[in-house]
Predict the 3D structure of the following.
Amino acid sequence: MKICIVGSGYVGLVAAACFAEHGNDVIGVDINEQKVKALNDGECPIYEPGLKDLLERNLKNKRLKFTTDLKEGVESSKVVFIAVGTPQDEDGSADLQHVLKVAEGIGRYINGYKVIVDKSTVPVGTAQKVRNTIKELTKENFDVVSNPEFLKEGAALDDFLKPDRVVVGTDSEKAKKLMGELYAPFVRTNNPIIYMDIASAEMTKYAANAMLATRISFVNEIANLCEKVGADAQAVRIGMGTDSRIGMSFLFPGIGYGGSCFPKDVQALVKTAKDYGVNFRIATAVEEVNYAQKTVLIKKMISHYNSESFSGKTFAVWGLAFKPKTDDVREAPALTVCRELIGRGAKIQAFDPEAIGTFKETFGDNDNIKYTDTNYNALNEADALIICTEWNEFRNPDFAIIKSHIKDKVVFDGRNLYKLEDMQELGLKYYSIGRRVV
């Protein structure tokens, strides 16, 4: 099948590579000429395990190419995906200007029946806006479909190639048949393609992300309470998560969620509810809890040092991405932690396996933070170690090196990577989330 995917950000790039991998002819369209050239040269602008290999293979086999020419993409394709960004507006709503601009281009260039697919995360009613925008510019027949993505950064290829389910919102039998043919190779193990009305498909994406964010904020509230009553949040997590009605996923106590989806989607859901006169109290609380959770380590540090100021202190920070296996730092807890530390007079020596470049871009120039090429080099002359991201390479470090380098012999772990008994035996003061201090 001939497919056009407009937007070569995270979602668009993964979709383009995965559709091409299953034999489709895919044209990726992006307005950034430099990015398009780099992609056609096989350069991957984001870190996602396995994506670069997939891009290179399908470029080589000529099933995939990238262009700035939207006209070429639309005219040569049967299915056109809109996968451009929907950044958060000042009022918390999703900014649809890029989506509707693409719709205008499709309306100008459409040359026969097409299925136009909203792949971007968009609020209820967006498909109708896209349909109206295109209809104003053409008499050609087309259908608009909502097909939300459910990709986890760090595992996006598996999520796309072997999805739990595919959600398709459509009011057209013709579009339903075409989308079924397109996704058939991805659901050969009988995972479902779930067809529903368009508004329900648009709502499903927000509902799913809000539920996952709720689980994270809930377990973090439990962890904070555990510290007060002398319980162990790790034990509580296992006790509740082994209930088949609850499950273990997204129940890891920590310093809050980040990334491009959960913060933005929870706030967009709250805004949509408000627009329709609904007070979405749970989603509002989820975001409030998450905002506060990002400063939990700072509060522990203030208590440990018995001071609001960290002037004269140097801290090693391990992990800058919002989660492991990605270079994405959008809304990352490490941003909050580092800003708080520097605001209180500290200096930082930071390491991340993949996210140093993106963190520099987001955090900006600051003489009080320097970046190291290994996690151990970040410890040099540091007073304490702070862990913000649970990269695998941080799980079994050489504790002798840690202990010999950090002056205050204290670790502030925002991801509960280590056993309390081990840290106690090592003689390191250890603060974690929802557990006793050793």
Remarks:
- The radius of gyration is 24 Å.
- Residues 198-229 form the longest helix (32 residues).
- The chain has a mean pLDDT of 95.
